[in-house]
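User: Fold this one for me? It's DUF538 domain-containing protein.
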Amino acid sequence: MIFFCETKLCTYLELNKVMMFAGKMQKALPELLKEYDMAIGIFPRDATNYEFNEETRKLIVFIPSICEVGYRDSSVLRFSDTVSGYLEKGKLADVEGIKTKVMIWVKVTSISTEGSKINFSAGMKKTRSREAYEVLRDGICVEKF
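Assistant: Here's what I get for DUF538 domain-containing protein.
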């Protein structure tokens, strides 16, 4: 998929592209998220390159450019070009590189799931419908994180 950003042409990699990390085949990011009971659409569609340390559970996701993603429930997340955190069953903790707009842009520190709900902690806890985050969406390029 190709689309135009404000200042450049952005291309998106195929979602199911298999990555290599440390000489080992790596599953697609949505598969990893699903395995840990996380919504598969919390990251932009083009966030296909990542590193995951199974021992420490540290996840680093690489995004081609700083972007915003709008979701079905009208919420918006802003992503840096690198997002990191610790992946547990139903939770991504100690998040770096994601913001959400409450009244102003606020740093997201944790994302967790509880059944049909997804919780974003950003100085305060904001609960949203998980269904809105189960679909992969394209990011819109922005100039700064």
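One thing worth pointing out: The CA atoms of residues 29 and 48 lie 6 Å apart.
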